[in-house]
Amino acid sequence: GVGLVETPLTGELIAEIEESACLDMAGRLQKVELALPDMNATVDVSFVGPKDDKSKAKDGKGEKPAIVMVHGFDSSCLEFRRLFPILEEDFEVYAVDVLGWGFTDSKGQDCGPKYKGAALVEFIKSVVKRPVTMLGASLGGAVAIDLAASYPDLVSKLV
Fold first, then answer.
1. How would DSSP label each residue in 136-147?
2. pLDDT 10s per residue in the chain (159 long)?
3. Using CA atoms, how far apart are residues 22 and 97, in angstroms rounded to an integer?
4. Distance of alpha carbon 96 from alpha carbon 67, whole angstroms
5. What is the model's pTM?
6. What residues are annotated to the active site?
7. CA distance linking residue 122 with residue 126, whole number of Å
C-alpha cells in the first residue's frame, strides 16, 4: 500500500546543499511506504514526483507520458536535478531512489537486486499507476532493463 510520509531531509542536511537546482529538487523530496507483498516486507522509498498539475498535457487534453528515472550506483534521485525540470514540461516525471541508496529506508530488509526491483515495481503500481518509460543511469540502467524484461506490462519504453 501507499502512505506518504514526511520529507526525508532534515534542516541540517538541507543547510549543506549549495547548488540551487539541488535545493529546488530537495524541497520536493517525498517518501512513500511500500509493501513488498512477495517478500513480506515494507520499505520507505524516497522520490521527487510531479507537481499538482502532473497529469495534464500542455494543451489541457489527455495525460502527459510518465517517466521514472533511476539513478546510478551510490547516488540519489537528486542526480537528476538538472534534467528533471526540463523533462517535466512535457512528461509526468518521477526520480526515484534505488533501495539501499539515496534517502530510502530499507527498514533492515535485504537490498539485493530482487528487492531493488520489487520496490520499483510497487512504486510504479502504487504511485504512478500506469505504464512508464524507464530512464536509468549506470546501475539504474541495469535495474531498468531488468524491470522492462520482467514486467513488460509496466514498462512501455526504455531509455
1. E-THHHHHHHHH
2. 444 444 555 555 666 777 888 888 888 888 898 888 777 788 888 899 998 655 555 655 568 999 999 998 888 888 999 999 999 989 999 999 987 777 776 666 666 667 778 889 999 999 999 999 999 999 889 999 999 999 999 999 999
3. 15
4. 10
5. 0.84
6. 138
7. 6
